[in-house]
Amino acid sequence: MKVAVAGCCHGALDKMYETLELLQRRHNVRPDLLLCCGDFQAVRNEADLRCMAVPAKYRHMQTFYRYYSGEKKAPVLTVFIGGNHEASNHLQELPYGGWVAPNIYYLGYAGVVRFRGVRIGGISGIFKSHDYRKGHFECPPYNQQTIRSAYHVRNIEVFKLKQLKRPIDIFMSHDWPRSIYHYGNKKQLLKMKSFFRQEVESNTLGSPAASELLQHLKPTYWFSAHLHVKFAAFMQHETNSKEELPKATKFLALDKCLPHRDFLQIIDVEHDPNAGDSLEYDAEWIAVLKATNSLVNVTQSTWNMPEKNGLHAKWDYSVTEEAIKEVLEELNHDLKIPCNFTLTAACYDPSKPQKNMEPVHTINPQTTEFCAQFGLTDINDRIQQAKEESSARGECEEEEEEDMDSTGSAEEPSEYNTDNSGLSSFNPDEIMLDEEGGDEDLSTCSVDPSPDHPPEFSTSFSDIRIMPDSMAVSSDDAMDSNNEELEKSGGSKEVEEKSSTERSLKRIGGDENGNSGVKKIKRRNQAIYAAEDEDKTD
Questions:
Q1: What are phi and psi of 130, to 5 degrees?
Q2: Using one digit for the tens of pLDDT, what is the confidence trace for 99-115?
Q3: Under 8 Å CB-to-CB from 222, ≥6 apart: which residues?
Q4: Are strands 170-173 and 118-123 parallel, antiparallel or unpaired?
Q5: Which candidate, 181, 171, 174, 182, places its Cα nearest to that of 214?
Q6: 3-class secondary structure, 534
Q7: Parallel, antiparallel, or unpaired: how do β-strands 264-268 and 98-101 relate?
Q8: Which residues lie across from 105 on neighbouring strands?
């Protein structure tokens, strides 16, 4: 079975599908499945644009809305995970996964599915330690913190995935597993992206959570994106016992979807020739979701997953063959995922733009049906309940405070306070540029849905690579650290014109007193954003 893998899509669905069609015309190669490793940008309307954590100049409607409305249909089954530039309000509707458009399936916060017998897993978002141990508490309309924390990986998703025992064929993450660069041509990587050097040498580049999953799951393939550079690695895993067969993972990071970029990869994957062509649930994953349902948390309080440390009565939530059999019996051995896509928001109409459309918290019927079928907690329904309880508690306390004012007594602040606007959450990968006006009000930020006819891409077969049977990795891993300068990007001229020194970049957030914070970002992020500007002008 031929599987196409794409990096950051950034809403350019037409470009991806046109490239696949070109591949078929020129080389008679037709992929059976397309995987996308995040930053998919399933933007349906102007309200969705407001929920994307990007500078205003990157808020463009792109072409997903045409697939959402039914004007177009994906020519190949597409499965994707979320990244850090998404319409978070849309993806939040489907925490356990679901269809965002006909033939386009989102894996959820974390998920495992099957296609033609191939087991495919993934985890959405990027890792940030300050949010890792929180629950999924965010909901639209987001504030300046939650618009970012909404896409941060949580420990509960990693914990669920670590309960899996059966082999995984393909796994996707948006950010790279930490340390994976030590298993590939590190010298070549630093030659292409010299601003990675400090993080590579300090072993801080990438996600420790993804690294933990890589070592536990040991999938045959692992695909990532996020850093906008292509990189291959081969990791031989250690065996836990003499009886265990050696396992290895072929890792590949993909570039972003832009013209003249090597953003698409085709691989041949062994599959079950007797399996159907439908996307299917994975019985073990469903059983794990049922086993861990009691751990669902929708608060922003930090907490640890159960461990074998004497503090928890139960720490092993892996499932038995009997539990898996029960799932199969519940489904009458029919694992086919129903094609139950439903429109849950108005679709963008180029002839009637609505720049003031506001996002709302929506309960998706697909999630309602899924939770009812398997006896799971609907996370969004739980969040709605928490909001209502918080609102009721707040009203009661206000009345109590008014009554106590006459006696001079003071009421303690409500433990259900939901105003997070004063909290700061600095994320080096999530920045606002100076030219965007610094800290902007997310409720009034401009959106630009104008590219109804995005720039024509000169599609060429150079955008596609066929992966060989084995990913060759150079053994030359030496690094030359003698005075290598920061890689110059197309945006550097603009920097020099503005200031003789490196201009600072503002991030959304503030200190504990509510004052706007100004901090410099990591060199690699500055260079990545500058490179994006260069790509936009190509």
A1: -70, -15
A2: 999 999 999 999 999 99
A3: 170, 171, 172, 173, 177, 180, 214, 249, 250, 251, 252
A4: parallel
A5: 171
A6: helix
A7: unpaired
A8: 79, 99
Tokens 């005075």 label which residue?
A: 483
Instruction: Detail the DSSP E strand segments found in 51-103.
Output: 78-80, 98-101
* 322-328: long-range contacts, CB 8 A cutoff, minimum separation 24: 323/287, 323/290, 323/291, 324/283, 324/284, 324/287, 326/287, 327/283, 327/286, 327/287, 327/290, 327/374, 328/283
- Cis peptide preceding 306, ω within 30 of 0: no
The three-point CA angle 286-292-297 to 5° equals 120
Q: Give helix then strand counts, H and E, for the chain.
A: 16, 16
CB-based burial, 211-226: b 16+ in 10 Å, e otherwise? bebbeebbbbbbbbbb
Q: Render pLDDT for 452-472 as a digit per residue (tens, 0 to 9).
A: 444 333 333 333 444 444 344
d(CA 520, CA 517): 10
Strand partners, 267: 3
Phi, psi dihedrals of residue 168, rounded to the nearest 5°: -105, 135
Pick the closest to residue 319 from 295, 293, 284 (CA basis): 284
* Predicted confidence (pLDDT) at residue 506 exceeds the cutoff of 60: no
Q: Which one-letter DSSP state was computed for residue 406?
A: T
Phi, psi of 20 (to 5 degrees): -65, -40
- Mean pLDDT across 94-102: 98
With residues binned 3-state (H G I as helix, E B as strand, rest as coil), the percentages for the chain, rounded to 5, are 30, 15, 55
Angstrom distance (rounded) from CA 249 to CA 184: 12
Whole-number Å distance between alpha carbons of 194 and 481: 10
Residues 252, 467 contacting (CB under 8 angstroms):
yes
Distance CA 78, CA 263 (A): 16
Closest to 427 in 3D by CA, of 48, 41, 129: 129
Global pTM exceeds 0.85: no
The letter for the amino acid at 218 is K
How far apart CA 62 and CA 12 sit, in angstroms, is: 6
Structure letter (DSSP) for residue 257: S
Q: What are 387's two structure tokens?
A: 């909001």
The answer to whether the beta carbons of residues 473 and 185 sit under 8 Å apart is yes
d(CA 14, CA 18): 6
Pairing of strands 248-253, 231-236: antiparallel
Amino acid at 439: D
